[in-house]
Specification:
Blueprint: H1 2-15, H2 39-49, H3 55-70, H4 74-101, H5 117-131, H6 135-148, H7 150-156, H8 159-173, H9 176-188, H10 195-209, H11 222-236, H12 243-265, H13 275-284
Length: 290
């Protein structure tokens, strides 16, 4: 796993040579460049989902939340975030790289990223947006995590961070296209949608449906708007049950019910089966005990 991550990281570094990743308030509002890592991205994403949440990670998250609350200005919080959140992300990755290059390290697992990283990223975005009324900086937090490293993107930009991204793009900028793009990214990259994701999508659909938000604020035509709303509904719709499997289950229950009826007809006890007994046997496909 480490070799795959670091090999891909070296390719990405060559592609981005000479390009600095900075916290740009204006650049973070638009749609960021997307890198198609194909099977590699799916593999590392599955690895990130297997991370176990421990009591130590819970204590670390609480400690860092307290440190965040001690920051009195947005500038102090930004400085703290660069040092204690993104800096720690880089330190973890550097330690994992050294461990991968050490032939004597054995098979002991090494964490690529802190377990609290995705939660802190989402909390930073929400704090900058709500407490300090700076949605540009909130978007920049996500953008910085996305481009900091591959591991940072995979382990940090998870469902909670995407939820904050969607809420910020809509509440602060009425960026319907940005919301649609974020949901597309989640689907393509295998990032699960939770109840909050679907609740946000439903809120956006209702507000767009009221039309008053779009009469003067939107530069898009009504046709394009409704196409995006339809796309958002499809992206956030719960997965449909497997029709073939459901049909097979119904057929099996029906066959078991018929089998139970045939067995009772051929019985020799002479006792009549009551209506409740027959109803019960049709459900479970068994012969009532006499």
């Amino acid at each position: 796993m480490f070799d795959v991550v670091f090999s891909a990281a070296s390719v990405e570094e060559r592609l981005q040579s000479g390009v600095a990743n900075t916290l740009s308030a204006t650049g973070s509002i638009g749609r960021a460049r997307s890198t198609d890592w194909g099977p590699f991205f799916s593999k590392i994403r599955r690895h990130s989902k297997r991370l176990k949440w421990t009591s130590e990670a819970d204590e670390e998250l609480d400690r860092k939340k307290e440190e965040m609350e001690l920051c009195e200005t947005d500038l102090q919080l930004l400085d703290w975030a660069m040092r204690e959140v993104f800096g720690e992300s880089q330190r973890y990755e550097a330690a994992a790289r050294r461990a991968a290059e050490d032939p004597s390290r054995g098979e002991d697992p090494v964490e690529l990223q802190p377990a609290a990283y995705p939660h802190l990223l989402a909390l930073l975005m929400r704090t900058f947006r709500d407490k300090y009324a700076d949605p540009h900086l909130a978007l920049s937090m996500f953008d910085h995590a996305r481009h900091l490293s591959i591991a940072s993107f995979v382990f940090g930009c998870t469902t909670p961070a995407y939820n904050e991204l969607i809420e910020t793009r809509w509440r602060c900028f009425r960026d319907l296209r940005g919301v649609c793009d974020a949901l597309e990214e989640m689907r393509v990259n295998g990032i699960g949608m939770d109840n909050r994701t679907r609740s946000l999508a439903e809120m956006i659909r209702r507000e767009v449906g009221s039309r008053n938000l779009w009469q003067e604020e939107s530069e898009m035509g009504s046709g394009e708007v409704w196409d995006m709303v339809s796309r958002i509904e499809k992206l956030t719709a719960p997965p449909a049950p497997e029709e073939g499997r459901c049909a097979t289950t119904v057929k099996q229950k029906r066959d078991r019910g018929r089998s139970g009826l045939q067995t009772r007809k051929g019985g020799s006890t002479g006792r009549k089966t009551t209506a409740p007994e027959m109803a019960g046997s049709l459900v479970v496909g068994t012969i009532p005990r006499h």
